[in-house]
Amino acid sequence: MHLNQFNHIIISIVLVCIINSSSAQIIERFPKPDFKSDYTRPQTITPEARAAHLEYLDVFVLIITLSLASYFALKLRSRKHIFLLMVFSVIYFGFWREGCICSIGAIQNVTLAMFDPTYSIPLTAVLFFAIPLIFTLFFGRTFCAAVCPLGAVQDLVIVKHINVSNWLAELLSILPYIYLGLAVLFAANSAGFIICQYDPFVGFFRFGATFNMIILGLSLLLLGTVIARPYCRFLCPYGVLLNWMSRLSRRHVTITPTECTNCRLCEESCPFGAINKADEGVLAESKNSDIRRLAIIIVLTPIIILLSGWVVSYLHDTLSQKHPSVSLAEEIQLENRGKRTETTLETRTFRASGKPSEELFEEAKEIQKRFRMGGWFLGGFLGFIFSIKLIKLSIRKKQPEYAADTGTCFSCARCFAFCPFEQERIASLHRTSILNEF
Amino acid sequence: MNFKTKNKKSLIWYQVVKRIALVAAVFAVIVSILLLANYIQTKSIDPLNSQALNHLMLELQKDPENTALKEQIRALDLLARKAYFTNKWQIRTGGFLLFVSIVILIFSLKYLNSFRSKLPDLEQDLSAETSWESKIIARRSITYSGLVLFALALISGFLWESELTPSESTPDHSLRYPTLEQIRQNWPSFRGPEGNGIAYQSGFPVEWNGNTGKNIIWKTEIPKPGFNSPIIWDKKLFISGADQNSQVVYCIDTRSGKFLWQTELNDLPGSSVERPKVTKDTGYAAPTMTTNGTYVYVIFATGDIACLDFDGNRIWAKNLGAPKNHYGHSSSLIMHKNLLLVQFDHNASKQLIALQANTGNEAYKTTRDVQISWASPILVNTTDRAEIILNSNPFVISYNPENGQELWRIKCMDGEVAPSPAYADGMVFVVNDYARLAAIRLGSPPELTWEYDEDLSEVPSPVATSELLIMASSYGTVSCFSSKNGEKYWVHEFDEGFYSSPILVDTLIYLMDMSGIMQIFKVAKEFQMVGQAALGEQAMTIPAFMDAHIYIRGEKNLYCIGKQDG
Predict the structure, then answer these.
(1) Inter-chain contact B138–A393, Cβ cutoff 8 Å?
(2) Could you say which of A109, A259, A270, B156 is the most buried, measured as most Cβ atoms within 10 Å of its Cβ?
């Protein structure tokens, strides 16, 4: 109980930090000298795009690491190898490639390509988006185990995990769906790539970020020492897709190499709460009330979807503020209506461009309309997720033995060592290798 | 801790790592505090807006050629930049040290944690939170959270009002403009309020001398040339200056004559690199600016038109197309409500353009079938309606300033028109050299009441009262007529000709001749000289009258004239 309270306090503090740091975007500018001198300013240089062969090298490395991760988790069942691969991924995809390109952010490239025909999506972005999903479909979330640098860096800092209550974990697991929905909505309307803007760890990988982003990243890493992989579990939008794929996967890691005797030794081994405990499904309430509740939720589902769609579409003005044109149009209109006397650099630049304000307002209104439509889809999607969660939580399921949850298990291989049959397997392998030496 | 199975070596390592962890933790805390302090300092101090630097910048504005001052500013600026970037370096380095110390701390703690037992406590009560119970709690928490989110979203959507949505409850502040009373308390455009050559204040001096300094309150040299006249709102005076290289708007404190700011308006979007040809006596900054008390507006011979706020910030700027005419663009700007009205005549087309004052967007554009006119429009407020009247060859045309629709026209002009119209008591007076002086009575339809064809004006605009009309000419004659029937009361010949126009101030006419001498005489049926006051340099512009002071732009200097004590 004490642990749970402590756990909640930590989560609250960190969430406040995260919200504070993410809401206040700082644009650091230092004006040029406003007097003339003989000094000629160097021309602004745009860095050249990464060479194509190096981009394909990234894809090649991705495939290799995914293959190795799957092999280590499913065949070799080795935490040590997974750990080493994780270190490699942090170095290569994190510090070397500076967190870009990443599969999580690629969601937005793919979305934008689907909605904006003028956007030419790089093939590598498509591959980075699709390959981990394909691997997950066959082997479970081995991408999360050792390939994703964001997951790996969080995994490396776990000191002593404390368990998040199941109900809280279920509640927080809705956040990734909201994040995913918003990311898709913004990307589809060319309003920005929020996943990249609020990537908490890219600042570390690049040794440079705004103060707020550093605070956000540090908060998550500090939280991650006790609440394992908080970003992966309660924020990662790509994790939603991986979760779906993993549930359909052909093969998945198992705690035990042979059979489970419900010895409970593995019970506390997973820092991510991804082990489904054996449950005989004892009835606390009558079966009829269970069925009635389930029926009500199922009947209410279309209403929840419609209501959520309506509410989020109602937020189209607020959400569309993220789009630079809408934001600029609002600022121009604020100035025009005399509600704000201070002009901004953006409004002054726009006015100096000579483009008629009406044109901007029309463009902004069109974008707002698109956000209204998008809001219906986003709200409907979230309403559906809420309903599915409620339905899932209303079904009593028998769990005959301890098993890794196919959706949320990161295939990190931590739990293997806790299984006596695994120990037996390792000992047997050891004996065999000694005999072979003789 | 489970040391029973650990050997002595492990115990030593445990102690070492424990100390490393402690040192790393203390180090991380110290670095964090320093970083935070550094960050707060960076945020709270704006190095480039230091009082010292701003003071020096103001000094430089007054004395732009002061090389020592420039060097001092550069040194201070460089110091500020060095301090800023050093601070940035400290934050970056501190961040790196913090990162390293945290990594060491975490791995030390991980190592220390490996000594702890990892096996679960199998005696722990399993029934504390069964799977089903936690599902019930989860279901409730998801339901309540969903409802809270739903409510928050509704409230947020309800409270958020997009500025792009027209709202009946929100008044449209874009329509705010000064009242006629406010306009008449200031000097907001060419030839004063409404461009009619009438000052609505009194108590102005009638004698001064620019050479001896008598009644000269201050005198300020204007860096760039321009034939535009000063405009004033409250305590701020605005004039423009331009040459082939650059265009500048100056704001001057009417109390001290000091420059408050100057804003260059070069390289506007759409502006041609090649400057149009202008004559020497028109120049690149002949049109007078105008203001609505919130923003000031300027147009140059290049067709560049801009709106600045009272602090010199550019609100909007655009190019209307380089006006090609054989003297250079000279028609001044004027405002009606929230519209900036531009008489934009050039070879290709002659237009009356109205721009939204706050945005610069075009409200309307009316093409005029007349010859190029160098005159400026005046605003006339009859009891029935507002009219904007333009003098041009061959028509004098009145438009509705709200939409640019023509209200009436009378064919009575000829030649290259420069004098602007005058208005008093339902009568409009127009004049041009080699054409006529014509009096038009407004009505349905307006009619030409009387006309006169001697001593006509080539440049100066006439001024009228309900009784009398005063007309000056570039040949040095000043004529006085009955406004009602055109009866000539007197003609007086001065030694110098006039390009400036007569301004009616109370019962007096102030009329500046080309040599810079202000001729001051009574508005009466008989010519009665009141005084002559020399500026000390040539002047072609229209003086501004406000708060008992007269502001005159000479060829090089701007003068403030007022009654000095003693």
Answers:
(1) yes
(2) A270
- Using alpha carbons only, what angle is made at residue A393 by residues A387 and A399, rounded to the nearest 5 degrees? 140
The reply to whether residue B120 touches residue A265, judged by beta carbons under 8 angstroms, is yes
Residue type, B496: E
Per-domain residue ranges of chain B: 8-113, 178-561
Please give, rounded to a whole number of angstroms, the shortest distance from the CA of B56 to a CA of chain A: 12
User: Between chains, do B138 and A167 touch, taking CB under 8 Å as contact?
Assistant: yes
Q: Is the dihedral of CA A411, A417, A418, A422 positive or negative?
A: positive
Whole-number Cα distances in Å, B162 to A311, A346, B299, B400:
16, 18, 34, 33
User: pLDDT band for position B47 (50/70/90)?
Assistant: low
Tell the CATH superfamily of the B178-561 domain. Answer: YVTN repeat-like/Quinoprotein amine dehydrogenase (2.130.10.10)
Q: What is the pTM of this model?
A: 0.62
Element (H, E) at A318: helix A316-319
Residues of chain A with pLDDT under 70: 1-39, 41, 280-286, 336-342, 352, 354
- Tell me how crowded residue A264 is: count the other CB atoms within 10 A of its CB: 17
Cα gap A158→A109, rounded to integer Å? 31
Element (H, E) at B211: none
Q: B26-45 b/e with 16+ CB inside 10 Å = b?
A: ebbeebeeebeebbeebeee
pLDDT tens-digit profile of A277-303? 887 666 555 678 888 999 999 999 999
Distance between CA atoms of residues A58 and B365, nearest Å? 59
Is A262 part of the contact surface with chain B (CB cutoff 8 Å)?
no
Q: What is the pLDDT of residues A204-232, one digit of tens each?
A: 888 777 778 888 888 898 899 899 999 99
Do the Cβ atoms of A227 and A169 come closer than 8 Å?
no
Length of chain B: 566
* DSSP one-letter string for B480-502: EEETTT--EEEEEE-SS--SS--
Does A267 reach chain B within 8 Å, measured CB to CB?
A: yes
pLDDT digits (tens, 9 = 90+) for A323-381: 999 999 998 877 765 566 567 888 878 876 767 777 888 899 999 999 999 999 999 99
| First-residue to last-residue Cα distance in chain A | 55
d(C-alpha A82, C-alpha A142), whole Å: 9
| Dihedral angle sign, alpha carbons of residues B25, B31, B36, B39 | negative
Partners of residue B214 on adjacent β-strands: B209
Contact A351 B161 (CB under 8 A): no
One-character DSSP codes across B35-51:
HHHHHHHHHH--GGG-H
Contact A70, A139 (CB under 8 A): yes
Alpha-carbon span B389 to B391, nearest angstrom: 7
